[in-house]
Specification:
By secondary structure, the chain is an all-alpha fold. About 85% of the residues lie in helices and about 0% in strands.
Length: about 230
């Protein structure tokens, strides 16, 4: 097998691995960004609902209740759920309570919507991990999980920064609408069709064909060149 073919294939696989890691990290970011973002605007929420910092913090962290319930549900009934479809439905559903937070009339409704967010976030989170465990090869699964954790960590920091920026410049309601759009972007990213990866056997066959075709092509060119030389004589 020519060295150039091996190098090109190595580069192709490396680029595909980087793209896959980026997609996985992005899905993780868009799944949990709502969990951390709201914590950056606690003072604004306390003023809006005329509540104490403690009560506001409790309402914001009510997502943990929904996440606990959803995680238990996935553990009990996850085997019956299509992984990819479940993630898409969860992220699309997540956009609804996220957008409704913009018009929540009081802190109790706000807390209820945060619980609904937790239900959707934990479902998407657990089903994504299940999908990766089932569809990524044992050689690549560690990298896939690492990319997912990276996206989660990034959502912690950048979600807070994004929320603070949006509230400062565009108001509280626009903040929640923007994050709802991010949830829908995550669903669209999961729904995007995947390019089928060639099997090892198919790849080896294709490379062997290229390797054997090259000498044959060279021989044909030599014959044609010899024929042209004879015709000039």
């Amino acid at each position: 097998m020519p060295v150039s073919i091996r190098i090109d294939e190595s580069h192709r696989r490396s680029a595909a691995d980087r793209l896959r890691a980026l997609v996985i990290a992005s899905i993780a970011f868009l799944t949990l960004v709502d969990l951390f973002a709201t914590q950056a605007i606690l003072p604004v929420l306390a003023v809006r609902y005329m509540a104490s910092p403690g009560a506001t913090g409790l309402a914001v962290n009510a997502t943990t209740v929904g996440m606990a319930i959803a995680s238990l549900g996935v553990a009990l009934f996850g085997a019956r759920i299509d992984r990819r479809l479940g993630v898409i439905v969860s992220l699309c559903s997540l956009a609804a309570p996220t957008a409704l937070l913009a018009v929540a009339p009081d802190l109790m409704v706000f807390a209820a919507l945060r619980i609904a967010q937790g239900l959707c976030m934990a479902s998407a989170f657990a089903l994504t991990l299940a999908y990766l465990g089932e569809h990524v090869s044992s050689k690549d699964v560690a990298g896939a999980f690492a990319a997912y954790v990276t996206g989660n960590v990034a959502s912690n920091l950048f979600g807070r920064l994004m929320a603070a920026f949006l509230v400062d410049h565009y108001g509280l309601a626009s903040n929640f609408v923007a994050f709802a759009m991010l949830n829908l972007a995550g669903a669209a990213l999961v729904e995007a069709p995947e390019a089928p990866a060639p099997s090892a056997a198919a790849l080896a066959s294709a490379l062997d064909s290229l390797a054997t075709a090259a000498p044959a092509s060279a021989s044909l060119e030599a014959i044609a060149a010899a024929s042209r030389t004879e015709s000039r004589m």
